[in-house]
Structure formats: C-alpha cells, structure tokens
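User: Good morning. I'm curious how cobalt (II) ion would be positioned relative to this chain. Could you predict the structure with it bound?
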Amino acid sequence: MVKRKRRRVTDAPVSEPAVRPGLLSPTRSVPSGIGRPPYAVSGDPGPARSSSVRTADEVERMRRAGAAAAEILVEAGRAVQPGVTTDRIDALVHEATIVRGGYPSPLNYRGYPKSVCTSVNEVICHGIPDSRPLSDGDIVNIDVTIFLDGVHGDTSVTVLVGDVDDHSRRLVAETRIAMDLGIDTVRPTQPLHAIGHAIERHAQRHGLGVVREFIGHGIGTEFHSGLQVKHYFDPRDDTLLVAGMTFTIEPMLTLGDPSCALWDDAWTAVTLDGRRTAQFEHTLLVTEDGVERLTVLPDGTVPADLFAG
Ligand code: MF3
Ligand code: CO
Ligand code: CO
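Assistant: Good morning! Here's the predicted structure, ligand included:
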C-alpha cells in the first residue's frame, strides 16, 4: 500500500497582501562607552570557538543579559499596534538596549543593518525593520538580542496585531507550546535530539510544518557558537546535555509547507508558498536537575505570557 502523505489539517490561505520590502532608515549608532562584540566593526564574527559549557561567572552574566533581553522584548511588544512601522520597533529596541548599557547584537552581525529582527506574516525570520506599517490582522515576530557585560541574551515572541484570523492565532499558540515542549525535554544526560523530536511531534499533531533551514544555537560570549539545535528529529544529534550548557530553542512553524526562499536583501527568509509562520525563542541553561530559562523578566515572568492572544 502506498503510504499516504499526512494531510495538513489546515486550509489556511496564502497571507495577502504579501509583505514587500520597505525603506531602511539611516544606520543607528551606539555610544562609544558601550562594550561591543568583536564583529561590531568588521561584521565578521569569525569561527565559533567558545566551549559549549559556561563558567559560573558567565552564567551569572547571562542571567542579567537574558533578563535585559526579556525586558526589551516586552517594551517592543507593547509598542505593537496597527500603523506602527517596524523601523519604530527597531528604534525602540536600539534605545532600550543602550539605556541598559548593552549593544544590540544584530547590528552589523555579518553585515545585518538593524538592531532587531521583525518578521511579519509569511516572513520566517531575519526580517529587517523598515518603513512598512504593521497592519490590522498581521502577526509579527520580534527577535531581540543584547550583548551585555561580554555575553548575549537572545529571545523572541510572535505578537498579534489587532484582530487576527483564527488560523494565525492557532499557529502562534501552537508554536509557543512546541517551544515549551522542546524546553521541557532539557536536562543533563538527555540527548540533544529529544528537543527537536518533541517539537516536531507537536507540529505534526497540529498539521503544522517545521522550518529546517534555521536552527537554535549555542550562545554565550559568542552570539552563535558550537551547539546546533534542530527543531525536528535527527537521530545523529546524540550529544548528551551537560549542566552548564547554554543554547537557544527557537522553532519556526508554518501553516503550510515549511520550504523557504530568501529575498534579494540576502536576509529576509519567507515561506515559498506564502502562507504564515510563527516563532518563539528562549536562551536556556542546562542545570543540575533540568533547565533554566535565562530570558525571563527579573521577577520570573515569561514575556510571551504578556502577549498571549
Ligand atoms: N536573533 C537571531 C537568532 O535567533 C539571529 C539574528 S542574526 C541577525 O539567532 F543578524 F539577523 F540579526
Ligand atoms: Co537565536
Ligand atoms: Co533570536
């Protein structure tokens, strides 16, 4: 018997009108007193070379960077409403980062021109903030990374703009749950592939696609280092987790086919079929008995809780 391909339960249409590139504002500057990552001038982070396990001192600094990233993300998310441009979100993130004594990690990372990624509707990730106003019914992922005291904190949420259709709301809610299920697998001696397995299983149950081209990553003194965290099951990823590892989990789920294309700007990744996609991200620490989310507010609040539709 021919194995029938699992039918997608969603009949969500292509997101219209398509997101189009807007105009970029001038490059924002960072005061000279602020500590910069090594790539800030050249754009080149060089080869990743840090250990996948953090020292106690690095962990303490990553807690502060993570909390700062969460606070900035909340500020940015609260600014979202119809009519607000993604460039306005960038300005806000840039200022909120500097006020905290940090450097916006995306700025000039491999030449990236802005201080945050804003990915609207069918944009999977790495959307560049521009003159496009958010529109009632959009969904937008805001992905904040701060470099503070020598370490990075990286976190994102997808926010609903005004009145959003049911398919998109479901996509956003299930993507967040998929991330949480991935996080729940994290503890010492668990294989890395348990994360992607849990995420993929949840996506499949809900008829959603999992983007394969972009993955989670080791993070610490470097923005992207060592560990590669797939959001689907790969039995070859049999590395066992060890207390002190820090990495992100940041699944991108789709209403349709997860295949992607790149805009001419060489950054903006979109779904090939034009249907919508959502993403959530935390920076995580493997602890002795499980996992700690580093990208939470100082009182422990998870930013996504403040934006749940
Ligand atoms: N924050 C993104 C991530 O989760 C990376 C953005 S790189 C940039 O890994 F250059 F696009 F900003
Ligand atoms: Co990341
Ligand atoms: Co990120």
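The chain has a mean pLDDT of 96. The domain at 50-307 is CATH 3.90.230.10 (Creatine Amidinohydrolase).
Let me know if you'd like a different ligand tried.
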